[in-house]
Amino acid sequence: MKTDRSTVLFQNSQKVIPGGVNSPVRACKAVGTLPRFIHRAEGCRLFDADDNAYIDYVGSWGPMILGHRHPAVIQAITEALARGTSFGAPTDLEMELACRVIEAVPSVEMLRMVNSGTEATMSAVRLARGATGRDIIIKFDGCYHGHADTLLVDAGSGVATLNIPGSPGIPASVVQHTLSLPYNDAEAVRSVMAEKGKDVAAIIVEPVAGNMGMVPPAPGFLETLRAVTQENGSLLIFDEVMCGFRVAYGGAQSLYDIRPDLTCFGKIIGGGLPVGAYGGRKDIMSQIAPEGPVYQAGTLSGNPVAMAAGLATLEQLRQPGVYDTLEKRSGRLAEGLAAAARRNGVPASFNRVGSMLGMFFTDRTVENFETAKTSDLPRFGQYYREMLDAGIYLAPSQFEACFVSLAHDDAAIEQTIQAADVSLAALSNG
Ligand SMILES: *Cc1c(COP(=O)(O)O)cnc(C)c1O
Questions:
Q1: Which among 273, 289, 317 is the end of a domain?
Q2: Which pLDDT score, from 0 to 100, does residue 194 have?
Q3: What was the pLDDT predicted at 397?
Q4: What's the CA-to-centroid distance between 324 and ligand 1, angstroms?
Q5: I need a labelling partner for 420 at 20 to 30 A (CA). Which of 38, 53, 122, 343 fits?
Q6: What separation, in Å, do the N-terminal and C-terminal C-alpha atoms of the chain show?
Q7: Cβ distance 124 to 244 under 8 Å?
Q8: Which domain holds residue 403?
C-alpha cells in the first residue's frame, strides 16, 4: 500500500501540531504505524491522501452512524449554510433539536446545547454540584468523560491508550473530590455510598462503556447506581455521549429502562459537526443561568449548521427498522470475527451492544478496565496493521470501540470478515 503522501503530511504536521494530531489516539502510536491522512469519505469508506480506500469502523469516533456524506445530512447542511453560519442568537433549529432529543429520551425534560462531549460532562458535573451543594463525584475506572480536569482520573480512551495515570497540569486539589471505582462493581459502589453518600453530588457513568474497548453493563449494575443515588439524594448522570442514539434511539437508558437525573450527549446528535448537550429533570436544568445561578455559556453553542446536521441525522434514525438493520449487520460482523478467531486459534473475547463492538485479545471475559488490560496489546497492534493493509480501518487502540453504520452493507461486512480471517492467520503464524 502506497503511503508517500500521508508520510510527508505527517512529517510536516508534526512540526506545527503537537504529535502531528489534534487528538492523541489519532497518531496511531499504540499500534506502531503511521496515521493515514484522510482526504474524503463516502458511505462506509474513507479515502486517504494516497487514494487508498478503507472500510471505516471508527466513524469519526461514533457520530457517523448514517455513514459518510448521507444525502439528507448534506442537504440539511447546505440549506442551513444558505441562511448564514452563526448568529449568536436563538434559532428555530436548536429548539427543534432539543424537542427531538426530549421526545426520544424519556428522562430528558430540558436540554442545553454545547460544542463537545467534554463541555457536556463538565457542565453536567458543575450543575450536579450546584444543585446538590455537594462536592464528591464518583466515576468508574476506564470510563472517559472528556478531558475536563475533574473527570480525568483513571480515564479510558487516549489516557488508557497512552498508559498514563492522569495528566500533569491538574492540581491534586481539583481532583480531590473525584473518586474512581471499578466498573460493574455494584458492591464497591454500595460500600463507598454507605460511607460518603451524603457528600456525593453525583455518580457519572458510561451506561454502555466504549472507552476501554467496549464493555456492557453487568445485569443490575445500573439499577444499583439508580438506587443508591436516590437513597442518598445524589444525582445519577448517564454519559451517553457515545451510546446515545447509538445502542437504541432513546440511548442506553431506554435499552436498560433506567432514568438518570442528567444525561450528556455528543457525537451522533451533531451528525458529524461539533455538538454536545446535557439535559435532564426540569427542576435541575432550571438551575442553569439565566433561569438559575449555575453558570455555563458558549459563543457557538447551538450553531445553526451543526443543529441542522443533527436534526437530519435524528430524522433518519427515527425511521422504522433502522436499529434492527444495525443490529443484524453488527451481529453478523461479531459472529464472523469470532468464528475467524476460533478458526485461527487466536484467543479473543467479544463484547457487543447493538452497533458498538469490542474485540479483545484475551481469553478472559472483559467486564471492566482491569480485564480489558489483560488483552495482548502487541498482538492487537499487529492485527491492526494487518487489517489496515487489507483496507479495514479500525480504531488504533485496544481501548476504543468499533462502530458499524447504516452504510456498512452486507458486502462490506463480508469483506471485513475475510480480511480478519487472513489477518488473524498471519498472527497465529507469526
Ligand atoms: C467522546 C466522549 C466524550 C468526549 O466528547 P468530546 O466531543 O470528544 O469532547 C465524553 N464522554 C464519552 C462517553 C465519550 O465517548
A1: 317
A2: 98
A3: 97
A4: 25
A5: 38
A6: 20
A7: no
A8: 4-69+320-429
Write out residues in the chain with pLDDT < 70, as ranges: 163-165, 430
pLDDT score of 428: 74
Ligand 1 pocket, CB under 6 A: 116-118, 121, 144-146, 206, 210-211, 239, 241-242, 266, 276
Quick one: cell of 303? 450553531
CA of 424 to the centre of ligand 1 (A): 31
Residue 286: how many CA atoms within 13 Å on its side-chain side?
Answer: 4
Cell 443490529 -> residue = 327
What is the Å distance from ligand 1's center to 118 Cα? 6
CA of 116 to the centre of ligand 1 (A): 7
93 and 28 within one domain = no
Note if 267 is an active site residue. yes
Instruction: Read off the pTM.
Output: 0.97
Residue 325: exposed, middle, or buried by beta-carbon count in 10 A (0-12, 13-18, 19+)? middle
Side-chain-side CA neighbours of 164 within 13 Å: the count stands at 11
Question: What total of structural domains would you count in the chain?
Answer: 2
**339 CA to middle of ligand 1, Å?**
32
- Pick the atom of ligand 1 nearest to 119's CA: 9
What span, in angstroms and rounded, lies between the C-alpha atoms of 356 and 361? 17
Last residue of a domain, one of 284, 317, 350: 317
Is the previous residue joined to 290 through a cis bond, with omega within 30 degrees of 0?
Answer: yes
Structure-block grid coordinates of residue 177: 473530590
Contact indicator for 384, 396 with CB cutoff of 8 Å: yes
Determine the pLDDT at residue 163.
Answer: 67
Mutate to test the pocket of ligand 1, among 23, 25, 61, 121 (most ligand atoms within 8 A of CB): 121
User: What's CA 373's distance to the chain center, in Å?
Assistant: 19
pLDDT at position 429, please?
A: 73
Catalytic residue among 29, 139, 267, 373: 267
Our answer to whether residue 144 is catalytic in this structure is yes
Has 384 been annotated as catalytic?
no
